[in-house]
Amino acid sequence: MKICVFGAGALGSVFGGHLALGGEDATMIARGATLATLKANGLKLIAGDTERVARPRVTDNPRELGAQDIVILATKAYSLPEAAEAIAPMLGPDTGVVLIQNGLQWWYFHGLGGALEGKRLSSIDAEGKCERLIGLKRSIGAEIYCPAEVTAPGVVRHGPNPKIVMGEASGAKTPRIEALASAFQRSGVIAEIASDMRLELWKKLLNLVAGAPLAVLTGATNKPLNREEGTRAIMARLTAETIAVAAKVGVKLPLTALDRFKQPADVPPHKVSTLQDLERKRPLEIDAIVGVVAEIGRMTGVPTPTVDAVYALCRMKAVELGLYPANPGFALDYKIG
Amino acid sequence: MKIAVFGAGAVGGAAAALLARGGHEVSVIGRGAHFEAMRANGIRMIRPDGEWTARPTCCARPADAGPQDAVMVSVKAHDLGAAAEAIQPLLGADTVVISAQNGIPWWYFHRLGGKWDGHRLAAVDSDGRALTLIGLDRAVGCVVTGAFAVTAPGTIRVSALARYALGELKPGVSPRLAALSRALTVPGMEAPASAKLRDDVWFKLLGNVSFSMICVITGANMATLIADAGSMRLARAMMVEAHRVAEAVGVSIDRQAVDARLTESQRMSSHKPSTLQDLERRRPMEIDAIVGAVCEIGRLTNVPTPTIDMIYALVRMRAEEAGCYPANPGFALRYDIRSELLPS
Asked: Model pTM?
């Protein structure tokens, strides 16, 4: 199958590289220095002591490629609407678009039924571009479990056993998702097809919603944040509010806020990607990770005072540093309660 | 009067210059580049009404100044214990010690009477050095209002208002306090005697604990904060909690007035609160006295402070990561999150 990876950041490179090494018909879309390096030297993947060089086909022009079977949209959440426009030449009626962004995804309330059917999440797709240009039928939700980092243009260091959990937004088990899972497996990526993709999105979000904003606000890694009672208390409250919001939209998370206190103190230090972004002066993904919980809280009448507070602080800090990706269609109403 | 100013940064240096110009016999005790510049060239003051230089005596060692009528201790709250030790050579039988720190003062519950009389606050005097080395008889509280900045070593910029409100630990105006107030009131410096200085403490603190700490976490100035709905909501939630704590210890101030005054005066202000300036310059931050002490009194009085607790944890972690948290091993807040989160 024809697979295009749009975006040559850390995760896009892990997938594009593995698929190319596995002999799949994979193309990467890259820009600037990365494009030049990939063309000249290929893509270097470093995992532990192992170095491999992949040579995926690479271009900066989606029009050269025509319709694809699969487009993996490997951009940050705030770049999605723009990316949705850019990938248009590669979309046929049956193309699957794999969305790997952190946080909830634009299609969350589409095809779900119930009172919120068709509601747009303005924290993620304020202008409805994803809805209009990608659409529900093409969308495949995905969560990635693999730490990865670009160490130089064309060079990516990643963790062992990269894993992707995917599910059609429609909930169906389609031939295209099964074919994609097989392609990943052949290429050394663990691929699972989720029976309930929305639950998977919430599970990952629950990890991020507590750690990411606190890392941004304090500059600390997970280690001190999990060690100090005060920050643990905030994380427990963020977790509790997120669990309550998820429950209100029918998702029962297999975790309680008190589990935050059971985390072992000797977890290895890790810088959440949002903190890495902050340190590298790249825009912060706070609307899709934090703002979205407050947005659904307001839709469903679930109070989220702690989420509101850390969102306001993160947003103002990001604005102050010039790292808030403008999202003019999204603003939380603070007059409630 | 014979007055020593111990710790002559912006607030202390300004007082030293104003008091010296007002005819007092002033000694300044300090260290570092700012102090050396004051010793070499005097204190250059920039005020709205003009610029001038005062030349108080500058001593590196307190023993050189000897016993005083009054000692103003204008160090940061976390340096108070060390300062209390260092000022001993300045103390005679009747010397008063004026404590001019931000936040909740170390003497807060001493001679207050009532339920918590004599309670020592771990956030501001965890090892009891202020209590034992300054002592209750010598202590006079001081709440400073105004805008003060060291603009270059030896040079201090001061707003038109430079107010050093003074108060006895025991509410009321004693003859000693009235005399001190008269003496310290000199051109350019107000030193009113406050019968209830704890009201002044909270009036100032309500803004510092809320607005300032949000600026510290986000790096924003006051005008940016005031224009941001989410942050203003947070600031007001903190102000409400701090106000409830103040009420629980018998202080009655008009919270709306504090809010209105701050919001109005700072709407166009690019002012960055001093704690944020400290963070940006990688200096120790006064967060236990300004924030932690409010949480501590909340726990003492059973007033919940969930929002202030959260901001304290964030500011403290930020300070620790930046190397700006002055170790305070005797102080730790307890969090009762388990009972809060357990389904009832």
From this structure: 0.92
